[in-house]
Fold this protein.
Amino acid sequence: MQSLAVSQITTTPLTLEEDLQLCKRLGCALEIAEKKLSADRSEAHDQLAYIKESGVRITSIQPRTLTVFPSASAPEPQSPEARLENLIASVDLFSQYWKDLPLVSNTGADPQGNESRVWDGCVEHYRTLADHAQKQGMKIALEALGPSLMNRNSILFAYSQAQELAATVDRDGFGLCLDVYNSWQDPGLIASISADKLFLVQLADWRRPRSLHDRRALGDGAIAFLPILRRVVECGYDGDYVLEIFSDSVPDSLWKDASTITEAVETSSLKFNDLAFDIGKGTSGT
């Protein structure tokens, strides 16, 4: 298993320089969150060049516009066509610095609950996006969210549904992101996991949330990671595992300050190393 990587979503309180220092100290990779870059394109290019020159390995991209249809988290622009243009612009930006990386995406939702409209629109627009990404040497990773976000941020509340949509899009560069936090309570999850087009695995621990952004450090919640990750490894996945913690609108926010989130990352890294060790023992037969 790869060592645990860190998303810039997780490190929201840290500066870019602190992100890179943390990754170097822990020997981990970084997932870039476009919203943490400057909105000024020239400054964003300078930041990306700085990341590239740091030598820190990059695993994946969280684009500024994450969904094809509007979401409760990011309702503007409302037009799926405009959002597709934003996603294409993100592909063009990051492909100048890295190749063969997945950009993570969700479907978004229809405010009236028209899941069929969103499904059909996503199939059409994801094909366009995937074709463009492939030309630029990049990939798209579709993520299913948890049931609490159904018809708010997504129409996919199970990993198997994301697999179905990816199969319908039917493009080599269009695959899947398994977010264990969102999917762990699905009783059919382990049976549905395969390495086919699995581009990325995201991790955070679950404790009954007090807000939509209340994720915990690994080992500080209820998720039984070992059987899930053992299945991920045994099915042949050899990609990255990214720590993606949201922590907002709660009294003990992990985003409270730099030291708090840094400690959560360190705790998670140690827990992940323990899991990797246990999985390694199981797969080696010792």
